[in-house]
């Protein structure tokens, strides 16, 4: 079932809670790691294997891919590589991770999030093949897929991706294509913000269009279709990172993540990150929610909330007013537009208090965080000039262009 990078690679609502319960009972998607162990282990047998993974790399029974490969007959697991949040997924966003040894297996762990983001020659000298197994979230601003992209280029070894679902559907694309001068670990290549691909398809597209130079094999899932939400797959949910705790949060993330680049909070330090947006100065949250609801954005409703923010985050220790974004129809939500409209509402209501976060003095390239997240500086300009309607049209055209670009590289129907 291993699909190399070639066109021959083939494999086979309004109430989100009710839909999830029904879907989970019927889904039967088999993730790439189980396909590998069932009929594609020849890809690794007799080879020294490096594994880039974290806590989300596991089979449906909850067994870690680290342990599965360590025990697999004929497989010699010699190195582990950890992305943001570490191998066990417990570190906070942005927290630097150090290298070490996996306590359970005794295998060396190399951190790819901290002082080193790209594997050095010494880190990969002892492996014959690099395997990747991490649950993606379908958003360009997530670091995991770009840690993989950097490793694919640097390792100069065959790459095997154990594919997993795009949790927010692999048939919906939204947002702009990244402009390469703004590339970073939250966007390395020219792809759409909500890119509508599995990670295997994303890397297949980048390899076959020569954006990445690597020898790639994708081990596809079985029984997966592009229109599936994660809770329709039957695969048990594991939070892909500490602050993405629900499927609704993952759906809104491609838009509400923009607030990481502002002095307002994206909800970190609350019980509902990326569905709560607020600031100490947001005393008019009732009026703002009403204004946003008047836009009649599809699939969402805006409400008000108050939260005490956990120490260590923006407004830590303070009780602040917030806007709550509720998903009412996940099949029609346009999360990128939601994020843009929220930014404009904050800017318009609080032009003095609302700020874009400036880069630190030692930041590489001195590109503002908001521009790295957006993959362009056009977003901030549109928010400030009140031209977001025109920007959204431009970004919709980008999404349509990207949809056409990736069609030849899709693995699933």
From TrEMBL:
Q: Name one GO molecular function term.
A: peptidoglycan beta-N-acetylmuramidase activity
Recorded superkingdom:
Bacteria
- Which stretches make up the Peptidoglycan beta-N-acetylmuramidase NamZ N-terminal domain? 49-247
The molecule here is called: DUF1343 domain-containing protein
Q: Where is the Peptidoglycan beta-N-acetylmuramidase NamZ C-terminal domain?
A: 251-412
Quote the InterPro entries the UniProt record gives.
NamZ, NamZ_C, NamZ_N
Task: Specify one Pfam family.
Answer: NamZ_C
Source organism (scientific name): Gemmatimonas aurantiaca (strain DSM 14586 / JCM 11422 / NBRC 100505 / T-27)
